[in-house]
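Example: Kinase.
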Amino acid sequence: MDIQELLKGAVLIGKGKQGRVYKLASDRCIKIYSDEQHAQMEYMSYCRAEGSPVIPKLYEAGPNYLIMELVQGASLDRYLKKKGAMTRSDTERILFIIHEMIRLGFTRIDAAVFHIFIDQDQPTGKVIDLVNSYTKQYHIPLVMFKGLSKLNVLNSFLTHVKVLDPELYQIWANYLMARSERYGKLQVFDE
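Written out as structure tokens, the predicted fold is:
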């Protein structure tokens, strides 16, 4: 496939460490990688997670690109900035994504807040940037915690998790209490 031909009329919608993402149509985008190994790693992640409601559909792959579903909605960071709060419903969506990552066998149970997308019209969120989903070892969502902390919603998120998933809450609480210098004073532990 001629990527230059594909990119005619495409709009750049994102760029990151691995490459650039262009909108091709109302329902599709293409991610072009600067490193073919990253393209292959993400392709394998999409194949292993195929059919999951939290993973965009993969349509086509090449040596340095993937054509996939264009995720609708807003990234979690933009969504929460606009909303100004973390609700129980928001927490349920995030927990569904976390549990789905575990079910899919991800070794990296984490995502940056700008890689999680929330669409109010959909019951679940979606997660993008799966390059390291099966290569890095993160059993606690460290990057997500950091993002939620910066948005000042980590306390409310953990308050909801404590009710919705006490077992997961306890694992996370033990980790966070041991690293309070990194995440600040968390009110949820004072209750």
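The longest strand covers residues 19-25.
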